[in-house]
Design brief:
about 80 residues, mainly beta, 4-stranded antiparallel beta sheet, about 10% helix, about 45% strand, globular
């Protein structure tokens, strides 16, 4: 899964509803993208701009230990207005 997330930009570009996508921030320590800018166009709707932040965590204990947990949220940033 983590390899897929490192290459999320090229995977998203295969989606016919994504008209533009670029990586805004990358975590230098992990090489993982953390913020994406995406423009999507869904049929019968106008284009939508999104700035999306991804937070990755590895589950340490319990039945899901060793698996990865991803929190995705839409954000606003003054240095990247949408």
């Amino acid at each position: 899964m983590l390899d897929m997330m490192r290459d999320f930009e090229s995977i998203a570009k295969e989606d016919p509803n994504v008209t533009e996508m670029k990586t805004v921030d990358i975590d230098e320590s992990t090489g993982m993208p953390t913020v994406f800018y995406i423009v999507s166009k869904i049929p019968m709707m106008s284009s939508r701009e999104n700035l999306i932040k991804l937070d990755f965590s590895k589950v340490e204990g319990g039945e899901h230990a060793g698996k990865h947990f991803t929190i995705t949220q839409s954000i606003l940033r003054d240095d990247f207005p949408i």
